Amino acid sequence: MFNLDLFYESVPILASAAIVTVELTVCSVILSLLFGTISVMLQLSKIPGGYWLSRTYVSIMRGTPLLVQLFVVFFGLPLLGIKGQAFLAAAVAIGLNSGAYTTEILRAAVQNVPEGQIEAARAMGMSTRQIWFRVILPQAFVVSLPALTSEFTIVLKSTPLASVVAVTELTYAGVVIQARAFSAVEIFLPIAVGYVLIALSFTQVSRWLERRFRLLHT
Amino acid sequence: MTKNVPAIRAEHLVKTFGDLEVLSDISLEVAKGEVVCVLGPSGSGKSTLLRCLNWLSPPTSGTVWIGDEMLGMERDANGTPRPLGDARLRRQRSRIGMVFQSFNLWPHRTAIGNVMEGPMIVRGLSKNEARERAEVLLDRVGLQDKATSYPAKLSGGQQQRVAIARALAMEPEILLFDEPTSALDPELVGEVLDVMQALAEQRTTMIVVTHEIGFASEAADRIVFMDEGSIIEEGAPADFLSSPREQRSRQFLDRYLKRTSFTSFASC
Amino acid sequence: MDLEQILKYAPLLLEGLKVTIIISTAGILLSIVTGAVLVAMQRSGIRPLAVIVRIYTEIILGIPILVLLYVIYFVLPDIGLRLSELAAGLLTLTLYYSPYMAEIMRGAIDAIPSGQLEAARSVGMSRLQAARRITVPQALGLIIPPLTGISIGLVKDSAILSIISVHEFAFETKQVVARTYAPFEFWTFAAICYWTILFVWENGMRSLERRVTRYREAR
Ligand SMILES: Nc1ncnc2c1ncn2[C@@H]1O[C@H](COP(=O)(O)OP(=O)(O)O)[C@@H](O)[C@H]1O
Ligand SMILES: [Mg+2]
Fold it and tell me: Which CATH architecture has domain A4-217?
């Protein structure tokens, strides 16, 4: 029932597609951090309208399916003159989506930075920007590391959706091969196992970070 | 000209929060090299006064001068005062050091990192220059061997000494202390007071809000007693502590000295 | 946005929206039931059952829902189990979301001090009475907020069933896009619809939560 030859044949293709999955995950995570950081700064500094802009962004991203966001971005980019960039569209859509959750994670951490530390920085003559980048954000990122790691596991788990705009990541490659081979077990089982293993290692990293972080602060 | 200009001068400071008047018409002058201790019951507005003196919380009305520069305000062509731009306000603030009751060290920086931060970021010193300066200062507060420790690994007394070094690193013209020993376990108070005593002896200009009467009597040139947002009485420590003129000062000291003698008795 | 176009295809889209709502409701209910079974297995005191639940949960937490969908839709027929698109979709949502539902229930049950149950038993209530009158009313208040979050996730994930041609909202949108070639407009319109439904759902749940937790305000 399990065709070993088919399995061996598909391994190289799946492996190179897995690299695309990793690339997409990394790019999306970077964008997520970027959007999340900008959004949390908009929300919590006293820039006029910033609060509502950020809340709206978060609400839209959390209130609509990633699949729909992917299509909106994919078909929206050409309107901005960026054509035929499926990978970019996928990374931007996943990054925007995850950025909303990163915003929420960072917000909790930023609000936990004691007011006194910010006062100490202000008393010293630091500017608002310096306080954000030297006092608030470095701490917020460290505190959020465990939560961010699990958010990035979710990013990894979102990347298969990029297959709907024909990014040849792991899942898409699987669909293509199985359509040709008329057999699915040999392909989707290794894929599923692969994702579970990567996600498990993410969890381990998260636990390790959490332990390390706790050590640093007691 | 600079010789006679006080280090800091506050005129008619008023601070209100909504309907609550926390400071009512406070005027205070501190000469260069002078050490002033501010005493007063809790809630009398001492912290608020310090926070007005470096514009962390701008007063509702009144002016503050550091040297011959008006703090946080400037006059336009017609002579009407208006708030100073942020960059210039920050430059002024960096001339006033502040030490907080709760230390407020930055936990993601080591002890020496905390001390280097201001000189590097605000003053634009190179990393090496900042490190040299920080090493000297940590040495001065007796913590050279703790330079690479994170605040979480330091005792309260050590943290507060790092905080003092951090304030000194900006080479401020005046240092403000807001109950620097109130959050410390009794056995750690001494090491912080020793550092402050040494600063006083080096004629550092300081305003110290404190409940440590012993420190005030030894280190202060002048004691200011506040209650309900006003300065009730001021004078040399010896005079104020032995023969306060005002009823409220006497009550405060009576209660205070009773309590301290009780604690010292209890700790025998 | 071309309103005329949207009006023209509104019946089709509405049909899709109806399917989305039905599938989501069914998915939420089924995953709650399955989740309850998982909790029961884990708390049964039979070790192998608990271990199975653990492994199952780890797998679900690690597997992308789209991969799970493909496994069910493409792999199961290979071993002789052919499901309709709709059934495969519903099974996917249920299998994927039941561990999350189980987690919510576990959390709520554990949050209620065991002393309260003992007190209920001590006044002579049966186990069932205690569960119905003591545990459930309090657990509801604890369950509603996370349940809202998870159910929103499920509704959003139901959109991927369009990939295996379940005729729900995203699928119908795709059909309309193929006919009109106005993808940006119609996908944006779809986003607005999803957002509106989930906004109403979230706020409805929030007011429900306020109602069932009114007892806390008395403090
Ligand atoms: N940000 C604020 N908002 C409202 N009231 C305040 C604020 N800060 C201080 N107060 C009030 O001002 C009074 C003086 O406080 P404070 O200056 O901290 O006194 P002290 O330091 O002498 O104990 C208190 O009644 C306090 O409640
Ligand atoms: Mg105070």
Answer: Orthogonal Bundle (1.10)
